[in-house]
Amino acid sequence: MHSDIDPRSLIGRKAFDRRGTRIGTVDEVYLDDATGIPEWAAVRMGLFSRDAFVPLEPSELAGDALHVPFDRSLIKDAPDFGVGRHLSPEQELQLYHHYGLDVAPPPPLDLEADRLAGTEEV
Fold first, then answer.
1. Which 8-state DSSP code applies to residue 8?
2. pTM for this model (two decimals)
3. What domains lie within the chain, and their CATH numbers?
4. pLDDT tens digits, the chain, 122 residues: what are they?
5. Burial of 106 by CB count in 10 Å (0-12 exposed, 13-18 middle, 19+ buried)?
């Protein structure tokens, strides 16, 4: 997913699974806390069903539709955290594991900054 896409432009777009089967409509977009880049989309899977979180990377925007490279059944079984709330790091980790995606390791500690701030233990 390109980072220059306005997340608001994704809302209301139809979403399709890897086989081209319609899975629903993008209801909300969640941004990465650190970068502000769109990271997850909540897709409403039916009139009376819940929203399912799908990763925007490695999904693709083609025309006016979001194409998610996973089967509908896997998407439907994604952990349900409800929408309209912030995703915690633990919830994101559960979603990454559910989709079998690699999770980037945390950035290395900046020990030099700690020494400069006077927080280094002796």
1. G
2. 0.79
3. 7-106 (3.90.50.10)
4. 555 668 889 999 999 999 999 999 999 999 998 888 999 999 999 877 889 999 999 999 988 999 999 999 999 999 999 988 999 999 999 999 999 998 755 555 555 544 455 555 54
5. exposed
